């Protein structure tokens, strides 16, 4: 089976994000507190002092590449732009907002097809890393914020990477949380087996569930495959499941379409001169660590940060360590 088999590649990617969002119920609760205009403190005990100062960020919209893209823009200082992965949206970065906005301008946007955007998938070309990178580049130009610190996770990290390659004038530093770049595995010993074994074991049941129009079964299968725990999804409350389900249209499209991921070579990576932070989880699947190792080999101006006892969830599973490492890198550059 070839390493670029797009069917398998497509299955894998949206799955790793579901692991991300699903893996961390506590951070989802945090983002609900941050972004929802509802009072979660039902008792007037006086134990919470933040209620009156907790501000709800305004969700803005900008018209780019033929449609409206929603985002939040809060805080002051050097701009930090967050790019979420599949099954996410701007709320994905809830566990970062409070910490990053203390000294930085924080911009988190919902990629095309993600909540609360209203696009309907009509063309598979719209689902590719290339099309999303074009959106991101145009978004950064409209912001007119100068060179930004670009932070991406999973599918979002792939988009951020391609944006930095194609539009270096827009990016001052790059933080990549376990991007998926299948072409890099061509240079890894047994890379095809690493990729195909991972995908076949974890994600083939997901495609079958989608074929049967059972979205929740697909999500459950993804979580089971990535987490290795058939009961993991069942432990989530209904509210959390709804957050995951609202962003399924894109990933359903990704699974059944081709040419999602462009070929990125080591020579392409060598063109990147800005500082790059590679973030990986200590116990993430080998497919991610193999790609991180290739990025480390090819990039010239880079650092690696490993999050303790963390899998692919990264900023969800270990937000304190993630925030500390990323902010330290950003402040240094």
Structural summary, described in words:
By secondary structure, the chain is an alpha/beta fold. The chain has one domain: Rossmann fold (3-Layer(aba) Sandwich), CATH 3.40.50. Helices cover 44% and strands 15% of the residues. The chain contains 12 helices and 8 strands. The chain has helices spanning 6-23, 25-35, 94-100, 129-143, 155-166, 191-211, 215-227, 238-245, 248-255, 266-270, 286-298, 319-332; strands at 60-64, 67-74, 78-83, 104-109, 148-153, 171-177, 276-281, 302-307. The protein has an 8-stranded mixed beta sheet, with helices on both faces. Helix 11 (286-298) links the parallel strand 7 (276-281) and strand 8. Helix 3 packs across helix 12 and helix 6 packs antiparallel against helix 7 (215-227). The protein is globular. The N and C termini lie far apart (42 Å). The model is unreliable at 1-54 (pLDDT under 50).
User: What's the total number of strands?
Assistant: 8
Radius of gyration: 19 Å
Low-confidence stretches at least 5 residues in length (pLDDT < 50)? 1-54
Q: What is the assembly state of the chains in this entry?
A: single chain
Estimated share of beta-strand residues = 15-25%
**Structural class computed from helices and strand pairing:** alpha/beta
SSE map:
Blueprint: H1 6-23, H2 25-35, E1 60-64, E2 67-74, E3 78-83, H3 94-100, E4 104-109, H4 129-143, E5 148-153, H5 155-166, E6 171-177, H6 191-211, H7 215-227, H8 238-245, H9 248-255, H10 266-270, E7 276-281, H11 286-298, E8 302-307, H12 319-332
């Amino acid at each position: 089976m070839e390493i670029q088999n797009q069917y398998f590649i497509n299955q894998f990617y949206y799955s790793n994000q579901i692991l991300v969002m699903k893996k961390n119920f506590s951070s989802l609760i945090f983002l609900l507190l941050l972004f929802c205009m509802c009072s979660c403190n039902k008792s007037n005990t006086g134990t919470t002092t933040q209620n009156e100062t907790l501000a709800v960020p305004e969700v803005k919209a900008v018209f780019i590449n033929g449609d409206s893209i929603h985002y939040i823009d809060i805080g002051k200082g050097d701009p930090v732009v967050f790019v979420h992965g599949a099954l996410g949206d701007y709320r994905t970065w809830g566990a970062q907002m409070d910490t990053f906005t203390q000294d930085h301008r924080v911009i988190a946007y919902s990629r095309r097809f993600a909540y609360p955007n209203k696009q309907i998938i009509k063309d598979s070309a719209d689902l590719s890393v290339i099309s999303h990178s074009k959106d991101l580049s145009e978004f950064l130009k409209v912001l007119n914020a100068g060179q930004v610190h670009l932070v991406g996770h999973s599918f979002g990290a792939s988009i951020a990477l391609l944006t930095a390659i194609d539009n270096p004038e827009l990016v001052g530093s790059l933080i990549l949380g376990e991007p998926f770049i299948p072409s890099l595995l061509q240079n890894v010993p047994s890379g095809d087996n690493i990729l195909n074994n991972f995908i076949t074991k974890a994600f083939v049941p997901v495609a079958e569930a989608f074929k049967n129009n059972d979205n929740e079964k697909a999500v459950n299968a993804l979580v089971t495959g990535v987490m290795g725990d058939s009961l993991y999804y069942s432990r989530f409350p209904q509210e959390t499941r709804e957050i995951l389900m609202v962003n399924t249209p894109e990933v359903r499209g990704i699974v059944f379409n081709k040419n999602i991921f462009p070929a990125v070579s080591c020579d392409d990576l060598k063109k990147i001169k800005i500082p790059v932070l590679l973030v990986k989880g200590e116990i993430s699947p080998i497919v991610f660590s193999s790609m991180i190792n290739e990025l480390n080999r090819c990039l010239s101006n880079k650092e690696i940060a490993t999050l303790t006892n963390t899998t692919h969830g990264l900023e969800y599973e270990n937000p304190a360590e993630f925030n500390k490492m990323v902010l330290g890198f950003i402040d240094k550059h």
